[in-house]
Amino acid sequence: MVSHMSDGPLRYFKSLPKGLLENYARQLIITVVALVSFIAVWWAVALWQNLPYLPPPDKVFWALVESFTKQDASLGTDMWGNIAASLQRFAIGFIFAFLVAVPLGLVMGFFKIADSFFKPIVEIFRPMPPIAWVPIFLLIFGIYWGPVMVIFLGVLFPLLSSVIFGVKSVDKPLIDAAKTMGANRMQQFTKVVFPYTVPFLMTGITIGLGIGWMCIVAAEIIGAVGGGVGFYINYTKDLGRFDLMYAGMVVIAILGICTVGASRLIERRLNQRMGVK
Q: Which of 32, 123, 207, 261 is in the most buried spot, having the most CB atoms within 10 Å?
């Protein structure tokens, strides 16, 4: 029974095409070499310069362990609490952006009148960096909702642009075929346009997740209180604990890699099921 279960992953890898398996192995080797090279260069520079604000990787690693295992006396929480605070803000801002961007993008992409009406407004705000809104959002929405709205704005436009592009990329023969089969305007929208747009939506989600993490760190550094990884980075910097500061940056990197990686995996599976790739 145990050997049968342990053979599961092995059977999976054996079932993969040889070229695909070799590609995975090559990519894994390149990734490991790149990370080891980066850490080696970082370590060499840190030891050579011996600067207080550039600790070597081993000190950052133990600071990372400390941040998870010891509760800060002033903050009253450990890194888990800061991650929870950041994830809460991130999730709320992302959900708001999703609920606005998807229907608005579908409508703008499908109806020319809506596109003509909303496009000038979108083009006014899209070039502005979300981080530039942090001070005014903190004044308007406060120290909790201000960072949330920065995330909302950062995620909104990648999602919106991807959905609009997806709708406008629908092959005309598909629309004509739906009309031939008697589909009305709404049926064309729900049965043809929206399913076709899903892969483009997933691309926008992946891009938006990466931008969202940049936004939350900037917003929490500038004005958030009561926890958050960005707040922790700024707090430990002010204390002169640069090893803990870099530990917070590592946490943000890990969170970004996990969320974006999960989104890319879902995107790849959806594309395969829908025959896009």
A: 207
DSSP 16: S
Same domain, 126 and 8: no
Residues 207, 104 share a domain: yes
What are the structure tokens assigned to 154, written together?
């950062």
Same domain, 68 and 169: yes
Give pLDDT tens digits for 126-136: 888 888 888 88
Looking at the fold, whether 69 and 40 belong to one and the same domain comes out as no
Find, among 26, 50, 18, 85, the residue nearest to 235 by Cα. 85
Structural domain boundaries enclosing 26:
1-50
Is residue 148 within 8 Å of residue 87, measured between CB atoms?
no
Q: Domain check: are 102 and 219 in the same one?
A: yes
CA 235 – CA 251 distance, rounded (Å) = 15
Statement to judge: residues 88 and 196 lie in one domain: yes
pLDDT in tens, 236-267: 888 888 999 999 999 999 998 899 888 888 88
What is each CA distance from 140 to 35, 89, 103, 135, 211, in whole angstroms? 42, 16, 26, 9, 22
Q: Mind listing the pLDDT tens digit for each residue in 178-233?
A: 778 877 777 777 778 878 888 888 889 999 998 988 888 888 888 766 678 888 89
> Residues 46-66, buried b or exposed e (16+ Cβ, 10 A)?
beeeeeeeebbeeebbebbeb
pLDDT of 101: 94
Are 201 and 260 contained in the same domain?
yes
Please calculate the CA angle 262-267-272 and round it to the nearest 5 degrees.
130
- Please give the Cα distance from 222 to 103 (Å, whole number): 32
What CA–CA distance (Å, rounded) separates 97 from 155? Answer: 6
Direct distance between the N- and C-terminal alpha carbons of the chain, in angstroms, rounded to an integer: 37
Q: Cβ atoms within 10 A of the Cβ of 134, count?
A: 23
Provide the token pair at 90: 């991130």
